[in-house]
Amino acid sequence: MKVGITGGIGSGKSFVCRRLEAIYGIEIYDCDSAAKRLMRTSAAIRSALTSLIGPGTYAGQRLNKAEVAAFLLASEANARAIDSIVHPAVAEDFTRSGAQWMECAILFESGFDRLVDRVVAVAAPEDVRLRRIMERDGISADKASEWMGRQMSQDEVARRADFVITNDGGSDIDKQIEQLINTLK
Fold first, then answer.
1. What is the Cβ-side half-sphere exposure of residue 20, based on CA atoms within 13 angstroms?
2. How far apart are CA 47 and CA 33, in angstroms?
3. pTM of the full predicted structure?
4. CB 32, CB 105: distance < 8 Å
5. How far apart are CA 59 and CA 61, in angstroms?
6. Vertex 10: Cα angle to 167 and 169 (nearest 5)
């Protein structure tokens, strides 16, 4: 059984994934890390992104994150164009990896939900998510809110999920993970 873990930025997906690995030894494929790796190492992606964004997309062997982010945030069409290059490569990489678990912030938006049998959403109150993002990334509340607003609503993600883990800073995450594992058995 393949399981996808998703949730909005700042919800604590990575924390839940680290607990799954620490307690149950579950290896989890990280879509964000894979996308960054593939954008760095794949000649086909490098060529397609450079053709799309321009010659400043890479500085030597390094992805010019500022240039890519500016292009991505300029319009929804730009974001979709980048996604159309990167998402198929990540999906293929996940399939080839043999991993049974996947962490993906945009599981539904990317269509990666079709790659898994069950979906786990990690949810947290908006104020908690906002604080986490600001602290983690050193950004303003406005910028953190902008990033949150670009993702599917937490309510919609939870509605589509098979299981929801509440990561509000007070709920017992390990107990919820134990319930999840028992449910999946």
1. 26
2. 20
3. 0.88
4. yes
5. 6
6. 30
158 Cβ contact list (under 8 Å, min separation 6): 121, 123, 164
User: What CA–CA distance (Å, rounded) separates 3 from 83?
Assistant: 22
State the DSSP string of 120-173: EEEE--HHHHHHHHHHHHT--HHHHHHHHHTSPPHHHHHHH-SEEEE-SSSS-H
Place of tokens 């938006």: 109
Query: What average pLDDT score do residues 65-69 get?
Result: 89
The H or E element spanning position 29 is strand 28-30
Sheet holding 118-123, edge to edge: 28-30, 101-103, 3-6, 118-123, 163-166
Q: Which residue has the tokens 């292009």?
A: 71
Which residues have CB under 8 Å from 48's CB, separation 6+? 85
Question: CB-based contacts of 102: which residues, under 8 Å, 6+ apart?
Answer: 2, 3, 4, 5, 28, 29, 31, 94, 112, 115, 116
Instruction: Please report the pLDDT score of residue 185 as a whole number.
Output: 87
Round to whole Å and give the CA distance between 88 and 166. 30
